[in-house]
Amino acid sequence: MKFNVFTQMQYEARSEGTLVLNIHALRTPNQLVLSEELTIDPYLKAEELIAIQGESRLMRVELTEPCSLKITYRALVDNCYELHDFSHLPEALVSQLPATVLHLFEPEPLLPVGQVIPLGA
C-alpha cells in the first residue's frame, strides 16, 4: 500500500544552536521510500545521520544565528504488511502483562508509516 507523507513545521530559534530532527520515513525490509523531499527555508546546511541499524535517519541542522525557519518533508512510501487474526487469543489485563511488553504501550516515534500499536485493556 502506498502512502503520501507530508509534514510542515515552523520554528522560531531565539539563539544559535543545533536542531536534531527525526523527520524521515523509515527504510525497512517492509517499507520502501519511493521518493522524498526535505526543504528548509531559508536554506541552512543540514546533515543526514543514519542509525547503526540503518532504519532511523536523523537530520542535524546548524543554526548560526537566531532565525525563523520552515521545514517541509514529503515522501511517497510503499508499505508491505500482513494481517493476522488474534481474535482467538484471550484478553489480558495490563496488570497481568509481563514487564517486557509494557514498552509497547508508549508512543513510538519510529513506527513505519501507517502502523498502529493497539492499546491494552
UniProtKB/TrEMBL annotation:
Residues 1-98 form the Bacterial transglutaminase-like N-terminal domain. Gene3D superfamilies: 2.60.40.2250. It comes from the Bacteria. Pfam families: Bact_transglu_N_2 (PF21295). This is Bacterial transglutaminase-like N-terminal domain-containing protein.
